[in-house]
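Example record

One chain of 51 residues, shown exactly as stored in the release files.
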Amino acid sequence: MTMVKMIVQTTYNGQLLRAGKEYEVASETAHRWDVSNIAKIVSAETEENHE
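Predicted structure tokens for this chain:
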């Protein structure tokens, strides 16, 4: 999962994502949005196993 800051308002999985706010989305989606100037990547979390 990756945190993004929205540049424009859009819907994602039935939720309204507002411009200027930060949301966590799938990494693939975040990269696609970054390229399309829909959102900017804030941080990418690495998946770690915590046992």
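Notes: The mean pLDDT is 89.
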